[in-house]
């Protein structure tokens, strides 16, 4: 029993000693800080001032980047304008040289057209030419009219027919009418590819004939083989 009392006293003494030691340590800490408050935690790195400073740096950097980009764009635009101006100058020089080369040819064409037009005569409201000297097949007559700046005549109505051929009662003249279409039942104009607007056949003439061409004689229309030779009537294309 005496041993148990000794152990109990030893335990109480140890607790008292630890309590006393903790109190002394606390007083020393309060004395060193000069205050009874707990120590403050260190300030974080990202304070408002630091954030504001970083934002200013970022804005400055971004502004510099934008200025650099704008400068590069402006430089590219300037170089592009210079190249376009150089290209335009080159094209103008080439066009002037080409114009100088073409002008003599154009003058010859104008003179040739004047000569060709001089053979056409105004009859009614349009200009025509009657070949009275040389006969040829229908295709050759068509080509000759084209070379003259016109085409085989297209007759619009009976009034125009009478005006063109009023004095030509004996000769036969090819005009731009043929039955070369596949069906053989249509009389078309080679120039337009459509049915002709006017026909005046000789009375009682069977006209359902394929692959023939039309000529005019005594103000009436007839047809025969396109390979036959006849005179022809041209019409100026400018006045068609």
From TrEMBL:
Gene3D superfamilies: Mannose-Binding Protein A, subunit A. Keywords: Signal. The keyword Thylakoid does not apply. Coiled coil: none annotated. Residues 1-26 form the signal peptide. Pfam families: Lectin_C. Residues 123-235 form the C-type lectin domain. This is IP02118p.
């Amino acid at each position: 029993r005496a041993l148990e009392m000794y152990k109990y006293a030893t335990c109480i003494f140890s607790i008292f000693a630890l309590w006393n030691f903790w109190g002394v340590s606390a007083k020393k800490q309060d004395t060193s800080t000069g205050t009874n408050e707990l120590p403050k935690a260190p300030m974080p790195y990202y304070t408002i001032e630091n954030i504001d400073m970083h934002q200013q740096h970022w804005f400055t950097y971004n502004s510099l980047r934008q200025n650099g980009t704008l400068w590069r764009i402006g430089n590219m635009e300037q170089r592009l304008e210079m190249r376009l101006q150089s290209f335009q100058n080159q094209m103008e020089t080439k066009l002037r040289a080409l114009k100088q080369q073409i002008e003599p040819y154009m003058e010859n064409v104008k003179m040739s057209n004047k000569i060709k037009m001089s053979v056409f005569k105004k009859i009614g409201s349009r200009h025509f030419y009657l070949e009275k000297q040389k006969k040829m097949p229908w295709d050759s007559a068509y080509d000759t009219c084209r070379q003259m700046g016109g085409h085989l005549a297209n007759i619009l109505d009976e009034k125009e027919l009478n005006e063109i051929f009023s004095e030509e009662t004996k000769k036969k003249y090819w005009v731009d009418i043929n039955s070369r279409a596949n069906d053989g039942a249509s009389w078309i104009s080679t120039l337009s590819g459509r049915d002709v607007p006017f026909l005046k056949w000789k009375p009682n003439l069977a006209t359902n004939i394929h692959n023939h061409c039309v000529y005019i004689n005594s103000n009436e229309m007839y047809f025969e083989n396109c390979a036959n030779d006849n005179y022809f009537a041209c019409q100026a294309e400018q006045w068609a």
